[in-house]
UniProtKB/TrEMBL annotation:
PANTHER family: ALANINE--TRNA LIGASE, CYTOPLASMIC (PTHR11777:SF9), ALANYL-TRNA SYNTHETASE (PTHR11777). Residues 1-748 form the Alanyl-transfer RNA synthetases family profile domain. GO terms for biological process: alanyl-tRNA aminoacylation. It comes from Mucilaginibacter mali. GO terms for cellular component: cytoplasm. One of its GO terms (molecular function) is tRNA binding. Zn(2+) binds at H601, H605, C705, H709. It is found in: Cytoplasm. Binds 1 zinc ion per subunit. CDD domains: AlaRS_core. Its cofactor is Zn(2+). This is Alanine--tRNA ligase.
Length: 912
């Protein structure tokens, strides 16, 4: 079976068992502070498990793109080294939301694996949860008994909390699970060592393929477990691993999921991919180049998937948070590409078209944006390649320095050293590389530590890991402290926690608090309140959260400082709690602010449509911010938007404003219908089956949007673009204002023109008048320069006449009055041309600051050893200053003008 057929067989199997097939959620997670990237198929159903949202269907199945590179599930360091952990992988899953439970889940997983896929039963092992006394959890005998119907008892194994109790993160839904493992070792090995002893033992031929989780609990902040409102099934099967066992391979990379990519990389690098290359043995020997090449090809073939899908789903590489995680993965891949496979020019980005083609029809998000994704990766690659070579050079230099000292260091007396016995029993000594240096390479140049260790080892050195780990730990602590949020548990006031959003229709609603909790971050304490009914819009889709007030019957007013979404909840942020939280309250949105926000949001839709007209249909939204002050719109476009284009865009938007187009708001349109009617949907946004469509003129702007909008475009008032800039490779940003802000902006500009006019004495044509002014200014400058030159020409003869003959030297020490340092320098050079055997010191005061200039004839520098630089430094002491220059000409500045005469006097001492 091909990978494609295997995927389809899974979906067909569960569809036939009454499951609705749903699309994958984006890999980038929004609205969940506990998670950066989707790490399991269940993430998109978290609210349903927690009882915070109703299930649309009792049974669903899908293939979900997952990323395990941060947080609780992080496999990054394994990827490429082993053959079955990926950064991005597809998780095939089936779910029951309070519908079927353990029996059906187990029956069906067995049926699918052994009857549809026809996997040999004697190679399969299953596990169940053995219980955990500390958590008060019992052994899962129900699962054990269900498996006994199908599986021989020596293939059913108990598992501990680590392997058989699945948790999404530090908090959240969890429950006991049952894993299915596959043993793909050859028969003779299987006869010798039972597969049962290798399950969950990191053996690369006895691997977990499927996990069936029985969701029953919610882990809360204090660590305790609470039963969920209903019992659910959540399963996840690694697609790439399944393909590997079905295609009879010993590595995921040998399947048709990866082979095309691997062969492309191999061919372009002029090397061959050796799937069976072995890692360097422990101890000495260095890495084999075969192995290094194979790891590099696997890393590249894997990482391109993670990076491409993250970018396609809206997460660009950046210098912090999720963007930084992506940048790091990209750098890891490029490092291998450059150093191991020898691609000195940007190559990694060239994998994008192949990948896009491969996922066409599965995850089309990539195919439709492939040019953009490739461009972003290419730009990152170019800038990283520059730093990378610097890192490698640094490493080599460090090694050179250490080598020079090796004879001294690599001796048994030196306790800093590290030694090991070779197989032949010879003691070999290694010199340690400073752990802080290794950390710098890791942190600044993206060198994974295992690589630095490997490079070190190849040259007979060892990294001081203790120091490295300490530096790493310190950095982690620093970044954790910067983002640490301490979230308390909810205090629940009402058990029915369904939430109604009324903000599309009103800005004031009567409501009750359902639950609240305390959160502290960076030393600041706040409260989060959830209401049963609320007009407050929670930040999302770029539109900021509403602010306003909660008014209580006793007259108490609680200010809402922000509103955010968390999973399915609308969370109101306040600085304090009401005295009677259970009372009915009136929730009132700051309506003036909301009006401004709505003007900016609707203007953003008009802008988006106008840009597609002016710049082209490749323009896609890559991020937006809409608040009460302005709007910011990031979009894919490859060149600067010109002034003419900006003028055209503004003109279209303002035309639409004047047309006063009424808002058409459809709250519940079938997603498929909306898309086929041509609405603009955003990449990386997760849409449900029913969507809200915002239309301003059927032929102009139609977008899927959850935000709030003006009733008619006339309310926007006036639209003005105030800035255009670049944010990242292939992404540009427009900032604009509307309504009152636009009016104020125009007023300010007008005021400026008015002030200018007054300053210029009300000319008819301001621009012309400024031009004349500039011309006149230039002319005057030139005249001044000329007159200064004339003045210094007169001075030079005066000065020459004042020369005193001392010991065959023409000595001049004088004060001169000139307006700038250039003129003084000029004068000094002219006198030098005029007077032989010259030793001259000039004292000046320019803008109140004392200065000294020393000029010495070239022959005197040689013959008498007079050095202007040294002399000026000596003289400058008299004016509390310093300076320097060349042996024949030097200058100094100082603070004390009263010392100038003394300095001139002192000068005589050098020749007398
Ligand atoms: P392992 O112990 O092998 O890391 P896991 O216990 O982390 O697996 P689960 O969290 O139970 O795995 O995920 C469900 C399934 O997803 C696994 O059975 C496996 O087939 C697959 N899977 C998990 N992590 C990865 C990964 N990094 N790459 C590819 N497939 C994975
Ligand atoms: Mg794992």
């Amino acid at each position: 079976m091909t990978a494609k057929e295997i995927r389809q067989a899974f979906l067909d199997f569960f569809a036939a068992k009454g499951h609705t097939i749903v699309p994958s959620a984006p890999i980038v997670v929004k609205n969940d502070p506990t998670l950066m990237f989707t790490n399991a198929g269940m993430n998109q159903f978290k609210d349903i498990f927690l009882g915070e949202a109703p299930a649309k269907y009792p049974r669903v199945a899908d293939t979900q793109r997952c990323l395990r590179v941060s947080g609780k599930h992080n496999d990054l360091e394994e990827v490429g080294i082993d053959t079955y952990h990926h950064t991005m992988f597809e998780m095939l899953g089936n779910w029951s939301f309070g519908d079927y439970f353990k029996k059906e889940a187990i029956d069906w997983s067995w049926e699918l694996l052994t009857e549809v896929y026809k996997l040999p039963k004697d190679r399969l092992y299953v596990t169940y949860f053995e219980g955990d006394a500390k958590e008060g959890l019992e052994k899962d005998t129900e699962t054990l008994n269900l498996w006994k119907q199908y599986v021989a008892e020596d293939h059913i194994l108990p598992g501990n909390k680590k392997d058989n109790f699945w948790e999404m993160g530090e908090t959240g839904p969890c429950g006991p699970c049952s894993e299915i493992h596959f043993d793909s070792r050859p028969d003779n090995e299987r006869a010798e060592v039972s597969g049962a002893t290798l399950v969950n033992a990191d053996h690369d031929q006895v691997i977990e393929i499927w996990n069936n989780v029985f969701m029953q609990f919610n882990r809360v902040k204090d660590g305790s477990l609470h039963p969920l409102p209903a019992k659910h099934v959540d399963t996840g099967m690694g697609f790439e691993r399944l393909v590997r066992v079905l295609q009879g391979k010993t590595s995921n990379y040998d399947t048709d999921v990866f082979q095309e990519m691997i062969q492309f990389i191999a061919q372009k690098s002029g090397k061959t991919y050796n799937s069976k290359a072995l890692p360097p043995g422990e101890g000495l020997g260095g890495a084999s180049s075969d192995w290094n090449d194979a790891v590099a090809m696997r890393v590249m073939a894997d990482h391109i998937r993670a990076i491409s899908f993250a970018i396609a789903d809206g997460q660009l590489p950046a210098s912090n948070k999720a963007g930084y995680v992506i940048r790091r993965i990209l750098r890891r891949a490029v490092r291998y590409s450059y150093q191991t496979l020898g691609f000195k020019e940007p190559f990694f980005n060239q994998l994008v078209p192949l990948l896009a083609e491969q996922f066409k029809g599965v995850f089309d998000e990539l195919y439709t944006q492939k040019d953009f994704v490739q461009k972003v990766i290419r730009e990152e690659e170019i800038s990283f390649l520059r730093t990378l070579q610097r890192g490698i050079d640094l490493f080599e230099t460090e090694i050179e320095i250490l080598k020079k000292n090796t004879d001294f260091l690599a001796s048994p007396e030196n306790t800093e050293d590290w030694s090991e016995k070779t197989k032949d029993g010879i003691e070999k000594y290694y010199t340690t590389i400073d752990g802080n240096f290794a950390f710098e390479l890791y942190d600044t140049f993206g060198f994974p530590i295992d690589l630095t260790e490997l490079m070190a080892r190849e040259r007979g050195f060892k990294v001081n890991m203790e120091v490295f780990n300490k530096a790493l730990q310190e950095q982690k602590t620093r970044s954790r402290a910067a983002t640490a949020i301490d979230t308390g548990d909810w205090t629940v006031l009402q058990d029915d926690d369904s939430v109604e959003f009324t903000g599309y229709d009103e800005t004031e609603s009567v409501a009750h608090i359902i639950k609240y909790r305390k959160v502290s971050a960076k030393g600041k304490e706040q409260y989060q309140l959830v209401l049963d009914k609320t007009p407050f819009y929670a930040e999302s889709g770029g539109q900021v959260g509403d602010t306003g007030e909660l008014v209580f019957p006793n007259g108490e007013v609680i200010h809402v400082t922000d509103t955010k979404k968390e999973n399915g909840l609308i969370v109101h942020f306040t600085d304090k709690l009401p005295s009677n939280p259970a009372d009915a309250l009136t929730a009132i949105v700051d309506a003036a602010r909301r009006n401004n926000i709505e003007g900016n949001h609707s203007a953003t839709h008009l802008l988006h449509a106008a840009m597609k007209q002016v710049l082209g249909t490749h323009v896609n939204q890559k991020g937006s911010l809409v608040n009460g002050e302005y709007l910011r719109f990031d979009f894919s476009h490859f060149s600067k938007v010109t002034d003419e284009e900006i003028a055209q865009i503004e003109a279209i938007v303002n035309q639409k404003v004047r047309e006063n187009i009424p808002l058409k708001e459809e709250r519940s349109v079938l997603y498929a219908e909306a898309i086929s009617s041509g609405v603009t949907a955003l990449f990386g946004e997760k849409y449900g089956e029913y969507v809200r469509v915002i239309t301003f003129d059927d032929d102009f702007s139609k977008e899927l949007c959850g935000g709030t909008h003006v009733k008619a475009t006339g309310q926007i008032g006036y639209f003005k673009i105030v800035a255009e800039s670049a944010v990242a490779a292939g992404v540009r940003r427009i900032e604009a204002i509307t309504g009152v802000a636009a009016q104020e902006f125009i007023n300010q500009q007008n005021q400026l023109v008015h002030t200018l006019k007054e300053l210029l004495k009300n000319p008819k044509d301001i621009a012309k008048s400024v031009e004349t002014l500039l011309e006149e200014n230039n002319r005057l400058k030139k005249e001044i320069e000329k007159s200064v030159l004339e003045k210094s020409a007169g001075m030079k003869t005066e000065l020459a006449a004042k020369a005193e003959q001392i010991n065959g030297i023409n000595f001049i020490a004088q004060r001169v009055a000139l307006p700038n340092a250039d003129a003084v320098k000029n004068l000094a050079y002219q006198v030098k041309d005029l007077v032989d055997n010259l030793f001259m010191v000039l004292a000046t005061e320019i803008d109140g600051k004392p200065g000294l200039t020393v000029m010495v004839s070239d022959n005197l520098v040689k013959e008498k050893g007079l050095n202007a630089g040294n002399i000026v430094r000596e003289l400058a002491k008299e004016i509390q200053g310093g300076g320097g220059g060349q042996p024949f000409f030097a200058t100094a500045g100082g603070k004390d003008a009263s010392g100038l005469d003394k300095a001139l006097e002192k000068a005589r001492g050098f020749v007398a």
